[in-house]
Amino acid sequence: MRSTLKLVVPFAVAALALGACGTKGGDTSSAGGSGGAAKAACDQKIGMFGALTGPNANLGIYIQNGVNLALDDYNKKHADCKVTLENYDSQGDPTQAPALAKKAIDDKKVVGIVGPAFSGESKAADPAFNEAGLVTITPSATNPKLADNGWKTFFRALGNDATQGPAASKYIKDTLKAAKPFVIDDASEYGKGLADIVRQDLGSAVVGNDTVQQKQTDFSASVTKVKASGADALFYGGYAPEAAPLVKQLRDAGWKGTFVAADGVKDQSFIDNAGPAAVGAIVTCPCVPADIAPAFASAYKAKYNQDPNTYSGEGYDAATILLDGIAAGKDRSSMIDFVKSYDKKGVTKQLKFDAKGESSDIKVFAYKVADGKFTSVGEIK
Fold it and tell me: How many other CB atoms are found less than 10 A from the CB of residue 177?
């Protein structure tokens, strides 16, 4: 990876419609490249698995919006054979995931899942999905270890933290030129895993480490450690509900360094709850800026009266893969091979997976908080 930032040229999306391009695995006439067209069943569903209520609901809703837009596009073209969405609201809680997975598995009309959205709930639910042969395409769960379990049903529509972590470290070292970074994690499957990668990449430059807990509100002990260390940058591995009070308490205590976090913090609630303390914060994300796919962004804004947000495009792409499979006549059991062979340009990237279910097209972007929103400052190369 080079240490420069490069603004990305928008994809050509005039032929989206939104989602119809030349395909290999997505070719509805070839049933995933296996030969022989099949008629789509007309009572099938896809599932959306993630937080739709609770403190992390925004990220789930951003994804769900993308999924619903993909369904609208599909159902307009297949008005006589529509697909419906089944929501599985996990609240981002891994303890709820197994029961929700069973509910999805028991509904035989569900032929694929967009999600699970978070790494912890993915770890808890994906073994059951694998055993049942129900495909999952996560648009947002980034812990690298998820792909190491041999799950034949696991696919990830974005880069993982083995890419995001080094990109965040590179930004801290080469763009911020921080000499004394501090690292804090929230002890979650996602947050600790990502922070550990950053710790490893920053090496001996790290002047201090700390761990907090989800739902924690008083960060005075961590603030004391950060200030005492002389840190000029802080990387936080965790989610927005804790990041907002953490950065606010740091600023209130007079800390002047740069606050850096990752995709779990790229949530408007972070900006709203942290207020002025959020200004200047840097957030990395393997999610693409809205201007990369202007046709998608325009359709999204027309439907929701807002710009696409974190993982909205990835949610759209994940749903589109499953919907292309349904159009090709795939059922639950045949959807696995269809997704494995999928190769089509989506709104966020070329949608293609390697043998472990990882995306073959990976980009990580940096976003800066300014004027009450996250603004892309370019791809981290």
Answer: 9
